[in-house]
Amino acid sequence: MDNTGYCGESFNSLQSGTSDEDMVEITGATLDFSSTDDVPPLDRDYAGFIAVFFGNGPNGVPKLMDLLDEPVPGVGTYEDFNTIDWVREKSKDRDRHREIATKSKESTLALMKSISDAFSGWLLMLLVGLMAGALAGGIDISAHWMTDLKEGVCLNGFWFNHEHCCWNSNETTFQERDKCPNWKSWAELIVGTNDGPFAYIMNYLMYVCWALLFSFLAVSLVRAFAPYACGSGIPEIKTILSGFIIRGYLGKWTLMIKTITLVLAVSSGLSLGKEGPLVHVACCCGNILCHLFTKYRRNEAKRREVLSAAAAVGVSVAFGAPIGGVLFSLEEVSYYFPLKTLWRSFFAALVAAFTLRSINPFGNSRLVLFYVEFHSPWHLLELIPFILLGIFGGIWGAFFIRANIAWCRRRKTTRLGHYPVLEVLVVTAVTALLAFPNSYTRMSTSELISELFNDCGLLDSSQLCNYANVSVTKISSDALPDRPAGPDVYTAMWQLSLALVFKMLITVVTFGMKVPSGLFIPSMAVGAIAGRLLGVGMEQLAYYHHDWVIFRGWCSPGADCITPGLYAMVGAAACLGGVTRMTVSLVVIMFELTGGLEYIVPLMAATMTSKWVADALGREGIYEAHIRLNGYPFLESKEEFSHKTLAMDVMRPRRSDPPLSVITQDGMSVEEVESLIAETSYSGFPVVVSHESQRLVGFVQRRDLVISIENARKRQEGVVSASRIFFTEYTPPQPPNSPPPLKLRGIMDLSPFTVTDHTAMDIVVDIFRKLGLRQCLVTHNGRLLGIITKKDILKHMAQMANRDPDSILFN
């Protein structure tokens, strides 16, 4: 008899993933998803596989024992671009834990294994924190050095950045601490002087050339080795944490290329930050380290608990805010966040922050470049300008999201998306040409924010602190009184106004290009500039009109009433909140940045105002908007379903569709099942008693069915196309000389989730969100009517919102 393997969809084809020709559109670029180094879909070690044993049935016919008596490699795993079954994964983990707990009472060795299993989660968090902290420290140091390399080089050693180079010089004065003999600009090295128009042009040219070189290397590496390394990564991580599988997105190649290109992209001077991509880097670390521990390697739900903690680690090392990182993961990215994950996230964020502090990348014993401390208290009436900053942040956030999504959609639908390298080079050239003449756009964005947050003191030589000298009767040890602005301050205001317009426009086209690009720092820079402008304006108003009603009683002459740096900080929080719609985590991150408890109320007022205004102009944050733009199957928990539709309105098949494809529990042959699989592309099939009764028995996954049939063909003699497949508990007697049957009850889900046809869709949507279902079967009086998948719900919600339902790209 013929014993050939299943020809339509083989086990080996499932192992290999997609071919090199299979391309999928992600964030506007044509990317190759053939890389499967993230999670090997199947164990390739078959040496330990135990063959199935046979016995003689009552009629002398070979009888197959249950195929799932021994684990079949690949059964219970998922294909690429599919959603995991949260219920099944949690059930598998409970069974595993129950088995370990039972065995631990039998022997000392089993007890030690049980303790090791319980401790493995904490050990994994320790490793994730150490690895992410070390990588973040290296990224910070490298980016700082390469940013300074655009302006000059250190003669003592080219590996020193500007600041470290001048630290070692004995000829550096405090007034000119940025100038030292050891640091030479490119004009000094090439033409011998740093003065005159020719030297300026030479420095200008070298600045643009270095920027173009860094950006070209970044986009070329991303395009050639790891297409997934582009962008922020947070929209995709949110989708992955909701249960979607994108193999290779958190793999070792993505980690390596993202780390290198992030340094290059930040150093090029583009209007982007490293904070968002650091979340992606930390999640890559978590995913790779999961392979060291069996319970995380084999369970997709447990793996996502680790990734939630890794997201907290990413924010912890990005901002030096471990508590803010935990809250960010809870509020912004995580889909499933149990209490155990909260504790482990806190521990991992602590380890990462400690590691970064030990490396001390900025040489100031701080975790971030723009750590500041304010000493003057704020007054209740200042809430009015703080709320105004919140309104500005909300309007800016809504404008940015609409403009950026429109630009990214244009990139996806026109020829612009076919030339990612050229796009990056053009944007870099425009950025560098416009940024160099203005000192506030020439410096790195982190340094700009640091300067804007700064509270002017006696020793500050910045333009922003060059106030007119007046006789001061009493100077506090911590703060200077309000003073009239000098000419340099007015010059700085004009430069900052131009920088504000420049940053607002250039960030729109920069975010979403094919280089690693974060949004936190550019958004904060826009808000910080606006806040500093308003703060200086309020300061001068209070100085010249201290007798006005709004200043009378709390702002007397010679007092330090207004802190412009505080306004910059509040503005930064407002704009970041308007773009991302973060609230609690954002306030805590900003509080950890400044170390001042008394400024929480201004931050809360500005952040909430920003969110209200932005929500009034558009409900989606930037990450949710990019998820929808890319068609990821993500059910947003913040979005309300307010339509009065029923399950029968959404389920498939519709009235005009062919009948639902089902498998009977005892009446189909291998050939019939293989034909059903070959003719359809469904991810699974309901199992019913018979075609006539349509009484539901269970649900079987397509992947499990294909793998089980092919394993049976390879390992059991006599299994042919005519062999019967049984999903029943007991196999009925077979006729003499009939081929041996296949018993596949072990791969069937005996308790698939069902709803009746009159269940309201808002309840069905809530069930899908809270249980993380892949599909739900619809019944009427116990008879199977149809099926609702996650994709059906997303298409229905898009249709109800007057959007294109075909924008949901993935199965």
Automatic annotation (TrEMBL):
A molecular-function term among this protein's GO annotations: antiporter activity
Presence of keyword Cell inner membrane: no
InterPro entries reported for this sequence: CBS_dom (IPR000644), CBS_dom_sf (IPR046342), Cl-channel_core (IPR014743), ClC (IPR001807)
Residues making up the signal peptide according to the UniProt record: none
GO cellular component assignments: early endosome; endosome membrane; Golgi apparatus; plasma membrane; synaptic vesicle
Transport among keywords: yes
Annotated transmembrane regions: 119-139, 204-229, 250-272, 278-294, 306-330, 383-405, 417-436, 492-512, 519-538, 566-591
Organism annotation: Cyprinus carpio (Common carp)
Domain (CBS) ranges: 651-715, 748-805
Family, per entry: Belongs to the chloride channel (TC 2.A.49) family.
Organism superkingdom: Eukaryota
Record key words, sorted: Antiport, ATP-binding, CBS domain, Chloride, Endosome, Ion transport, Membrane, Nucleotide-binding, Repeat, Transmembrane, Transmembrane helix, Transport
Compartment annotation: Endosome membrane; Membrane
PROSITE patterns for this protein: CBS
Database matches in SUPFAM superfamilies: CBS-domain pair, Clc chloride channel
Protein name, per record: Chloride channel protein
Membrane topology: Multi-pass membrane protein
UniProt cross-references to Pfam families, sorted A to Z: CBS, Voltage_CLC
